[in-house]
Amino acid sequence: MSEKLFLPVLLGTNRRDRKSEHVAKWVLTKIEEREDLESVYFDVRDFELPGDHYGTEVGHHFPEWREAVIRADGIVIVAPEYNHGYPGVLKSVLDLLLKEYIHKAVALVGVSAGPFGGTRVIESLLPVVRELGLAVTFTDLHFPRVGKLFDEQGNILDDAYHKRAERFLNELVWMAKSLRWGRENLG
Ligand SMILES: Cc1cc2nc3c(=O)[nH]c(=O)nc-3n(C[C@H](O)[C@H](O)[C@H](O)COP(=O)(O)O)c2cc1C
Question: Are 23 and 143 in contact (CB under 8 A)?
Answer without folding.
Answer: yes
